[in-house]
## 1
Amino acid sequence: MTDHIPPAIANLTQQLTQAGNDPAAQFKALTAALEAVPDLQRNLAALRANVVRDAKTGRTWEAVGDLFGIHYARASQIAQGTKRHPSRS
């Protein structure tokens, strides 16, 4: 599953270790990681949608929602890749 994590995120710990006490190297590694966050979020959302779609096999949406502790409609939205409204938790 780590194949889906952008290299800037996956290698951050290693890059920071290699940077040692060099603030410029630390800054560069952290900046690269921050720039990769949108890609990471998209990849994680896609992986989550796959998990929900797989869980749907042989189950109703109500059962899928119960499995994950979410409303059945939200489970369906996640499977479809629908983003949640930012004002909702």
## 2
Amino acid sequence: MNLENFQWTRYPEHYKISENKIEITTKPHTDLWQRTYYHFRNDNAPVFQMETEENYFSFVVKTEFSESKHRFDQCGLVMYLDSENWLKASIEYENDRFQHLGSVVTNRGYSDWATTTIDASIKSMWYRLSRREDDYCLECSEDGVSFQQMRICHMHNGKGKIKFGIYACSPEASSFQAVFTHMQLLECQWAAHDGQKPDKTK
């Protein structure tokens, strides 16, 4: 991928970009979250993205986060459209026993959070975002070969031109270095549905 096509939406504490690697050092008290359950709104995480109007594609990235050590330290894949419409997939550190592998989808200013618990010893993860018009699929993989579905979602503002890429943040009083490699833009790896037919429209 040509990283010259990427732009920052808010800068991290420090960063380093080379041909095949992006290193981000997070700022304390940075996050992406909107309203739901916690009732607060955080919209200050650094985001590094490119723009596309392509309706069918897959984006792959490997994340490494050996330094994550404080509650909610996280890094991963993001599609940030604006402060009230975005999605992300990441691992959030919890303690020295477990972490939360999950995703957040935010539509029209309200976030959800879907997670599963994984061991705290896991310090790298691959993610794949696939687009089929305004529907999206998030997947993860420990080896970059076999991907497992995390969720399928619809983005109300996800038609036409979008932005997608990577992010890293530390919602509490912490900072760590996140490393991103193996970024690829591929033909859509999310196959068209071949089961139940769509409802007929009048």
